[in-house]
Amino acid sequence: MAVAIQTGITTNSHQRMVIGAGKVLVDFVDGVGGGSERAIGFTKGGNVFEVTPEYLDVDADGSYGKVKGLDIIIGCAAKMTVNLAEVLTTQNLLLMMGGLQSADRTWTFVTGEYLGTGLELTSGIVPGGGVNIDNNTVKVYYTHAALGIPHLAVSGTDYNLNVTTREITEIITGAILDTDEITVAYSYDSSASADNFDVLTLNHVDDDDYHDWALVGRPSSSALTKACYWVLRDALANGGMTINLQKKQNLVAALAIEAHWDRTNLDLSDAPFEIWVPQA
Length: 280
Fold this sequence. Notes:
By secondary structure, this protein is mainly β. It has helices spanning about 90-95, 120, and strands at about 20-25, 40, 45-55, 70-85, 100, 105-115, 140-145, 150, 160, 170, 180-190, 200, 210-220, 230-235, 255-260, 275.
């Protein structure tokens, strides 16, 4: 009798994979756009997440080799390589190398600015940041009066954003009710430079250069409603910058991003990475 085909495939194998190169979030909160969280844009060439614990293998006298229980974790490094194609935004360029600054632009993040009610939003409202708002950072929230729980509105479904004037207008057929309280979060250039360029220069690294990053993966399981997240805490792009322009090719910049331990939480359980595994 022939030996059966040897394979690890089971009836559930098709539901246990992660598909595609994923997307990358900066200022990660929860994957649904809370706070200043945003996707940095599309990548080309894939993205790599790495965690490397450092082990001390205690070589005890009298043992013939490694002994179970004598492996001790004495360090841990976590990093991510992101092959970013959407490089031509000032906010993304500032992320590419720790210590970069722009004297022309000072990005200020606004959270929870009150715009009024859903009824008032039908005629359109421009947030306080005006035309200096970065359109990609705008997030509109609506809170039902009876529940008190803010919901993230969907652009193009619940509201429209005028990309020139930054006016936000409710879509009548969307989920926003006339009685809902409307708030908005966004980044804007508070220096409002009027020239044609944002000039980036190198400065000292400070706490604002560290961000929480996440690589988001799509599970193959049809039973899962959440993505998977590989998270770096207090991460900094410290691999330098290489710009390589080639004929008939778009520029792809490789960001080498490394997680850092919190100064006040140095226990092993506080290692600066997390893996969020979705549950059915």
